[in-house]
Design a protein that fits this description.
Number of helices: 7
Helix content: 55-70%
Distance between the termini: 35 Å
Shape: elongated
Pfam family, one: Transposase_24
Largest sheet: none
InterPro entries: Probable_transposase_24 (IPR004252)
Number of domains: 2
Strand content: under 5%
Number of strands: 0
Radius of gyration: 21 Å
Length: about 130
């Protein structure tokens, strides 16, 4: 319906005229018109502390597992979940420019915790994927 709403001049063939008029009436109410603005504002808001609610990524419609399979194949072996996260949550998949502050904060938090764990037990191998979850 999102595509239908974007092109309100053309009623889809699978929607009756009566239903279409109902949609148009609903989509033009002040409450409905305000919803995307509020949603955008909410998405861009920063919560206090390190809240792990990542709203954006650059993965498109592909699932994380599809991205992981593709990256595993490219790398010639399994990639860590952390590298997958960095690939999907950075602009142009550059692993540097995060899509938002939350993604960057999460990455910094994860890296800091991983370093603490490695320093605390240098002889023990830390499984990054287990640490991620």
């Amino acid at each position: 319906m999102n595509d239908c709403r974007k092109n309100i001049d053309e009623r889809p063939s699978f929607v009756t005229q009566e239903i279409w008029e109902g949609y148009l009436a609903h989509w033009s109410t002040p409450e409905y018109v305000a919803m995307p603005k509020q949603g955008s504002k909410n998405m861009m808001s920063e919560k206090k502390g390190l809240e792990i609610y990542i709203n954006k990524h650059t993965g498109g419609k592909k699932s994380f597992s599809s991205h992981k399979e593709m990256l595993d194949e490219k790398a010639g072996g399994p990639m860590s979940v952390n590298l997958l996260f960095n690939y999907i949550d950075t602009k142009c998949n550059d692993n540097v420019t995060f899509v938002n502050k939350r993604s960057r904060k999460f990455h910094e938090y994860y890296e800091r915790r991983l370093e603490e764990m490695t320093q605390a037990s240098p002889d023990v191998h830390v499984d990054e994927d287990e640490r991620f979850y």
